[in-house]
Design goal:
Elements: H1 3-10, H2 30-38, E1 46-48, E2 54-56, E3 59-60, E4 63-67, H3 73-77, H4 84-93, E5 98-102, H5 112-116, H6 118-135, E6 138-144, H7 149-154, H8 167-183, E7 191-195, H9 232-249, E8 254-256, H10 266-272, H11 280-289, E9 298-302, H12 309-319, E10 323-328, H13 336-351, E11 356-359, H14 380-397
Length: about 400
């Protein structure tokens, strides 16, 4: 995603409300899940064969979805906002198969409902999952989107992502357990993701200039220190622990980091703290290291650096981990130039055989001027193009969806 623009948008959000509705212990999806098992599908969501092929309902799968960043966030902040229902309905009309979304509050204060009224929190998330089930939309929740939110909530610096004994990891494990066990029987749940682009913040030579923002009114500390700077070793420890925790409760679905492409200098940043450009071998080492087992998919985000897809696909094939281009897109108003760039990017994803990809970003009003794609605005052509690409992928696979 376009990080700094989103940071400015979500900084405007200051509080959350509390919904009052009936309890739905265990979450949605149980009846539908049982039906799927009776029809021989067995594993729900997306899984990976031993040869690295992405599979759904027992068959090899390719699909292009969208990032519906705030489908849960909007109702977390306002219980009366159920606009995601219409959003899912429109996606179903376009036969968009799945969405990736932020599964929690962006700022620490926005997790108040989870901390103080867990029942109400999950009632709102239940409603999102049910709406997706109703429309046949898959979900890939990104559980810890903002890198500083959990450490801030438990009163630790961000470096505690690297410490499996920390309060940060304790919080992470508890949230994973609650979310995964609640929704693992839902056919809407396609996979599990850790967070968003943690790798891009790791081992920066100028890390002191890019520490997480400090907004005490939003629940952060008043200031940051060197202990809020991440390294690749720290994020790998977090990714591994997250994936191990997911696997305790869900043995099948894909698990992904949510990373962007490694920075062109990532290996040198980690080894010597410099911006020196990496070799192809060093790139491969960083890509695989930042998507560690038991994560069984490789995450990248494809924007202006999309030419790296071809080489990355080859690395993923050799590692027997399907590639997930968790974000792709072009910025700006509709023009012949942006249409051309978008068509080229989508064609690259399709022609190079990327198994899974998600457009940035659907129905996100905070980025109306830059990225937002809806069925009625000037970027609707992107939604139509993705719909057509999915039609071709279905035809190639001989599947109805």
């Amino acid at each position: 995603m376009r990080w700094f623009g989103l940071l400015a948008i979500v900084a405007l959000t200051l509080s959350v409300g509390v919904a009052q509705s009936a309890d739905t212990s265990g979450g949605p999806g149980n009846a539908t899940a049982s039906s799927a098992a009776q029809h021989g599908h067995g594993r729900l969501g997306l899984s990976v064969r031993r040869d690295g092929v992405l599979v759904k309902d027992g068959l090899p799968y390719r699909g292009i979805g969208v990032n519906y960043f705030d489908c849960f966030y909007r109702t977390l902040l306002d219980a009366n906002n159920t606009s995601y229902e219409e959003g899912f309905r429109v996606l179903a009309e376009y036969r968009i198969p799945f969405v990736r979304f932020m599964c929690g509050g962006f700022w620490p204060v926005e997790n108040k409902l989870y901390l103080e009224n867990e029942k109400a929190y999950f009632q709102r998330l239940d409603a999102v999952v049910r709406a997706a089930e109703k429309q046949g939309i898959g979900l890939i929740p990104s559980l810890f989107w903002n890198l500083n939110t959990v450490p801030d909530l438990v009163g630790e610096p961000c470096d505690q992502w690297g410490n499996p004994q920390s309060k940060t990891h304790q919080f992470m494990r508890a949230y994973v357990r609650k979310v995964v066990t609640r929704y693992r029987r839902s056919p809407a749940l396609w996979g599990w993701e850790f967070g968003n682009e943690y790798n891009l913040a790791a081992d920066l030579p100028n890390a002191s200039e890019h520490r997480p923002a400090a907004y005490p009114d939003l629940g952060t500390p008043a200031s940051r220190s060197a202990r809020d700077e991440l390294t690749h070793d720290m994020i790998r420890a977090a990714f591994t622990a997250f994936a191990q925790q997911v696997r305790k409760y869900d043995p099948y679905r894909i698990i992904t980091s949510g990373n962007g492409f490694p920075r062109p200098s990532a290996w040198h940043q980690r080894q010597e703290g410099s911006w020196t450009q990496d070799t192809p071998e060093q790139y491969a080492e960083m890509l695989l290291g930042d998507n560690p087992d038991p994560m069984n998919a490789i995450s990248v985000h494809a924007y202006e650096d999309s030419e790296r897809i071809r080489a990355t696909m080859e690395i993923a094939r050799k590692a027997r981990k399907p590639l997930f281009a968790g974000e792709f897109g072009v910025v700006g108003p509709r023009s012949p130039e942006t249409e051309k760039r978008f068509s080229e990017l989508l064609a690259l994803i399709e022609n190079e055989g990327v198994p899974l990809a998600a457009l940035w970003v659907y129905d996100f009003g905070g980025q109306d001027d830059s990225w937002n794609v809806t069925a009625t605005n000037s970027r609707a052509y992107q939604l139509k193009a993705v719909s057509e690409a999915n039609r071709r992928l279905r035809a190639q696979a001989g599947t109805p969806r």
